[in-house]
Design brief:
NPP1-domain-containing protein; NPP1; 4-stranded mixed sheet; 6-stranded mixed sheet
């Protein structure tokens, strides 16, 4: 809640509606934060992944509300259920997906960041409050060449021909990874896999591009908040090393730390409709 005082009485009202805390200050119940209004570039919308969530997994939600309140997350010590408090139908209707694009040397890397309130194992206390996961869609000549999905601090990279698609959108699933301590990560969808979310279809949260926040205070509040064990890869300190980790060998000419001057209009890009900021 780094900027609540800057936003005014509306933020204060939002804070006052925060549910009660349990013993030790653990957040047991919550009201899903109202998301930011859609504000994204054409490219970030065009390549946005189609997401699903296995039944043992939370839904991603807004990391910062429309009134400037950052999400406090959910405790993994208060309840035993892996999806307790984080998998309601309404969550699907109140999502944001945060994106940042970098283009140079003929390549564009479109990174999408997803916030989850917790990453819990099957045991009470297993896992951690807050989780961030990411997808990087690599394009060249206006077509997808590679896709990378985050898992436990690294990235799994596949050529586009080996990725299930819905139109221009790579199919990605948030799941409980039993091979790695039973915490959650992203994986590529399997051929013919049916979505398991409440609506039974591949899902697209409302996208917010890097310049799509209402103002710099909102963006700084979300990116600079201490998310405990989770990291936001679209923030400056993480963006370059994350792109290097997610970069396919074929994109060796891509400079992970540079927005190419020849691509000034694509990277990170101006949202459509005149919304957002310009730097």
């Amino acid at each position: 809640m780094l900027i609540a005082g800057l936003i005014g009485s509306s933020a204060a009202a939002a804070i006052n509606t925060t549910p009660a805390l349990g013993p030790g200050g653990d957040l047991i119940k919550r009201d899903n934060l109202d998301p930011l209004p859609l504000c994204a570039t054409y490219a970030d919308k065009k390549w946005q992944p189609a997401l699903d969530f296995d039944r043992d997994s939370c839904y991603n939600v807004a990391a910062i509300s429309a009134s400037g309140v950052t999400n406090r997350g959910l405790s993994v010590t208060a309840v035993a259920g892996v999806t307790s408090g984080c998998r309601d139908r309404q969550d699907l209707d109140r999502q944001n997906v945060y994106s940042r694009t970098r283009c140079n040397s003929g390549w564009c890397a479109h990174m999408y960041a997803y916030y989850f309130e917790k990453d819990q194992t099957s045991q009470v206390g297993g896992g951690h409050r807050h989780d961030w996961e990411h997808v990087v869609v690599w394009t060249r000549n206006d077509r997808i060449e590679y896709v990378a999905v985050s898992a436990h601090g690294g990235y799994d990279i596949r050529a586009a021909r080996d990725v299930q698609m819905e139109g221009n959108h790579p199919k990605v699933v948030y799941h409980k990874d039993d091979s790695n301590g039973m915490t959650h990560a992203l994986r590529f969808a399997n051929a013919g896999e049916a979505p398991e979310n409440h609506y039974g279809r591949w899902w697209y949260g409302s996208p917010i591009s890097y310049y799509g926040f209402p103002n710099h205070d909102f963006r700084n509040a979300m990116l600079n908040k201490g998310w405990e064990r989770a990291s936001v890869d679209i923030r400056d300190a993480r963006f370059m090393p994350a792109l290097e980790s997610a970069r396919p060998g074929a994109a060796s000419a891509f400079k992970a730390g540079q927005d190419g001057p020849e691509d000034i209009h694509n990277s990170p890009g101006i949202p459509e409709g005149g919304c957002g900021v310009r730097s």
